[in-house]
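The following block was generated as part of the benchmark described in Methods. Ligand: nicotinamide-adenine-dinucleotide.
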Amino acid sequence: MPKEINSAISGFYKLPIEERVNIIAKIIDLNEEDKKLLRNFGYFSPSQLDTLIENVVGSYQLPMGIACNFKINDKDYLIPMVIEEPSVVAAASNAAKFARKHGGFHSEKIKSVMISQIQITNLKDISTAKEKLLEHKDEIIRMANEQDPFLNELGGGAFDFEIRELTTRRGEMLILHLLVDVLDAMGANVVNTMAEAVSPYLEELCGGKIYLRIVSNLATHRIAKCKAVFDKDLLGGAEVVEGIMNAYEFALADPYRATTHNKGIMNGIIALTLATGNDTRAIEAGAHAYASLSGQYSPLTNYQVDSEGNLVGEIELPLALGIIGGMTKIHPMARLALKILNVSSANELSQVAAALGLAQNVGALRALASEGIQKGHMTLHSRNIAKLAGVPEELIEKVAKKLVDDKKVRVDYAKELIKGMMRNKE
Ligand code: NAD
């Protein structure tokens, strides 16, 4: 029976990390090894960790791999990826090779425009309120920009707004979309501050009541687009291209398949998002909302076959990624990842991310359309299964290979193998 615990710990957030660890260790009966693991902060100092989030008790590590072979807009990149799933980095590197033969990836320049939503309710007269807002546009934008003079100096800041009318069960609402060029930042903090600052003035102008003032993660003014030609022969021939085109049609027609299709794209994009200290949830939410904008959840990539039988792939999705702000400059490994990536703007980072997403999708579709996804997956997965079965470090490779060869990548079989090996040793 698992032990019953009481999770109501008063003042937990006020304690130093060490004391929090002791409390958790006591409640859960953690042993010395567990406590040692919690106290291992890796490259972080305890104070760095303790200021990132609340109630910190430890640090959590993941592997960082490098995707190779990427040429994007005629520049070569080594792309850091932080992900726990085997085969993802290999698939991206492979697909980048297929595109390299035809000049690599071509990503479009992206302006870092974010939307900050201001929800104006309880309006007596919607059209008069709209007129008032438009009449005082310059003043509203000036007030927003007063919040971030530095951003302004660099050439960014609020520059326009859009007004939308929403009919809801609680009546009509005006939603003002403040448009802000956040330059090299992801921008959520910047635009939230601006929206909060202008809201009292908007209430004064319109006479309504403002509730929400927050960034939209559906960053439709920050759409990344990338295109590449993937070599037919390197992909495995016309039959594989045919399979990929069928897979694409399947995703177009079926949201169940489109979800997994897009998950494959996000394998790459989120791994880079995480590596560079960006907000993975923001990117994920924006991508899936964008995939549903037509009313049917759809693939974020599209494919055609050119006159020589090569696969032509394109990707399009919102990518609010920054190289400044948030955690990007605080996290030591995120800083290093950005150094390895060698990008000089948020625009360039998003161009790389779009190319990676496209490559990731082609890599997965190629495997699905040819030998199936499991073959590549299983080699790495089998090592994890061997570890899970308690196989000693020096025998992992041997057992993992046998699991794959016998097509039985299972913990029970790994245990059986190791028992046999031990018996033979005796
Ligand atoms: P930030 O506020 O940390 O940094 C941006 C600031 O950096 C700007 O205000 C600007 O003055 C300064 N700056 C210096 N050089 C700049 C340059 N070249 N370009 C742009 N700005 C420059 O960061 P942020 O990007 O506004 O916010 C990102 C953080 O907000 C993330 O950590 C995210 O998790 C968090 N967040 C997200 C949401 C959401 O997505 N819904 C909501 C709230 C907070």
